[in-house]
C-alpha cells in the first residue's frame, strides 16, 4: 500500500527546497518547487499563497517570474517540524 504524504510533510518539503535550492540567493522558481515537492501545479500555487500569507515563504517578483525564499519564520517552522517528526518517530508514529 502506498505511503501518502501529509499536508505538513508537503509543506516541509517545499520549505526545505526553498532553503536548499536557493544557491544564488535570488530564490527558487515554481518549477523547482513543483519538481521537488511532487504536487500538481494547482495545488502548489494554493500552497504557495498560503505559505506566503503565513510568512513562511518570501515572494520576490523579478520581471515576469516569481522567486521564493524561505523566511526566518519558515526556518523556525521547519526546524520545529523536523524536531517533532523525530520525536514522533521515536514512538513509532508516522506523520
User: How far do the termini sit from each other?
Assistant: 16 Å
Widest beta sheet: strand line-up: 1-2
CATH topology-level fold name: Arc Repressor Mutant, subunit A
Tell me the total number of β-strands: 2
Give the % helix. Answer: 55-70%
Low-pLDDT parts are none
Count of domain modules: 1
The second-level CATH architecture is Orthogonal Bundle
Described by strand count, sense and barrel closure, the largest sheet is: 2 strands, antiparallel
Secondary structural class: alpha+beta
Task: Write up this protein.
With 95 residues, this protein is α+β, with helices and mostly antiparallel strands. The protein has a single domain, classed as Orthogonal Bundle (Arc Repressor Mutant, subunit A), CATH 1.10.10.10. The chain is built from 4 helices and 2 strands, in the order H-H-H-E-E-H. It has helices at 7-20, 30-37, 41-54, 72-90; strands at 57-62, 65-70. It has a two-stranded antiparallel ribbon with strand order 1-2. Helix 1 (7-20) packs across helix 2 (30-37) and helix 1 (7-20) packs across helix 4.
